[in-house]
Amino acid sequence: MSLDTAGDPSGKLFAEHKKIRPAAVSGFFRRLKWAILVVGMAIYYFLPFVRWDRGVGHPDQAVLLDLPGRRFYFFFIEIWPQEVYYVTGLLIVASFVLFLMNALAGRVWCGYLCPQTVWTDLYFAVERFVEGADRRKREKLDEGPWTLEKMGRKAAKHAIWLLIAWWTGGAWVLYFADAPTLVKDLATLQAPAVAYMWIGALTFSTYLMAGFAREQVCIYMCPWPRIQAALTDEWAYNVSYRVDRGEPRGSLKQNKKLRAEGVAAGDCVDCGQCVVVCPTGTDIRNGPQLSCIQCGLCIDACDAVMAKTGQAPRLIAYDNDINIERREQGLGEIHRFVRPRTIIYVVLISAICGLMAWKLGTRATIGLNVLHDRNPQYVQNSDGSIRNGYTVRLLNKKGTAQDLTLSVAGVPADSDLETASPAIRDGRALVLRVEPDQTREIRVTVTAPANAKIEASQGVVFTLLDKDGEKVETRDFFKAP
Ligand code: SF4
Ligand code: SF4
User: Fold this and answer.
1) Domain ranges of the chain
2) Which residues line ligand 1 (CB under 6 A)?
3) Tens-place pLDDT, residues 177-200
4) Whose CA is nearest to atom 4 of ligand 1?
5) Domain 366-479, architecture per CATH
6) Cβ atoms within 10 Å of 3's Cβ, excluding its own
7) For the whole prediction, is pTM greater than 0.85?
């Protein structure tokens, strides 16, 4: 079998990795990225230590994924496994928010919010701090012999990278247990083995992804750029080189000379600053590219050049295809944030959020699940009566124990509801105690008398009632010969 490598004269199947050493840059977008990085990381690292009083016997951690207790706590919200649809709803909302961001400003998620971008940015900052702000100096260090200085700088850089990675992994596990207790247990080596394993795995993956894979994740591994390219439109604002203003490019001297001779010259002085600050090594002057994560750093770099050369800023800017075309035709810019796709996204986001808020606001503090026996579906007793068996799960979401009344309707009036579990009989109903914030599973049987008129399969309704009159119902069926 032969593989076609005709496109590459070297015969290689993939591009060789070139290490990118972005130069430091300052400006509005750089400051914005720093602000998002600091706020985002502060939330991630310290949120597990935020307390939230839920009363005695309940965890007081504001955000907690309590796997043994099968609960997810998020401030005043407590999600039970039976309510996993809230998580589904949140994921759907997150997807539509991502689509909306894309419709407004392209890959703004990639450039500012994606953890891969944020951590890689931090690792670049450490690299510049330890190995030198000058990218040529860093390149020289990489390519030079292993001197004591090189060993020291490399060791320091990797030590700080590992420390950040370890803290990242450490913070992750704190979301799954009481954070202050787990920190103490981790320090005294008394934490469960699984916590150390997760910290190890996340330390390794953070160090690998942010320290070594870097832009390769964005260019080759992540599916979002491909999906995003299919979802975007000509109205979305993307970091763009204003080709109508920049070309024909040339050195400042050359451009000045051309202008003096009355020949048209662009504003781009071909300094390459937009490329050297780019964390993915993209030359934005070549047009929209999959490797561009839309971080805006090239805008800052180019604005600094424009200021130095006495030209107007924003030769590189957030722009859209429509306006590039209109300017080329000598027309004014138009902006359209409100258009069918942004309206649809906003409506969907609002509808799902509204529905979830309504569900949360009206959710019951008790719950009932009923599962009919599969085999046998019914039993005919020697006296001719028909018995059906069910597994019933009762939920008490309150912080106090409750006596819940279980009854069944839809079967003949003199049918019996029975259980072998501890219960108090109240007429035809059963009163069952459920401990605070617990579920209780019992087996019940419903027996219809021999002379009752019953269809082969008929619907029944199980009802659970608490002392305050709150009621939940579940439908099932009753089988007969
Ligand atoms: S081309 Fe500009 S916006 Fe795109 S990734 Fe590079 S620096 Fe960021
Ligand atoms: S930084 Fe601006 S002026 Fe310099 S090469 Fe890039 S686009 Fe041209």
Assistant:
1) 28-230, 233-328, 366-479
2) 239, 277-278, 280, 282, 284, 292-298
3) 999 999 999 999 999 999 999 999
4) 292
5) Sandwich (2.60)
6) 7
7) no
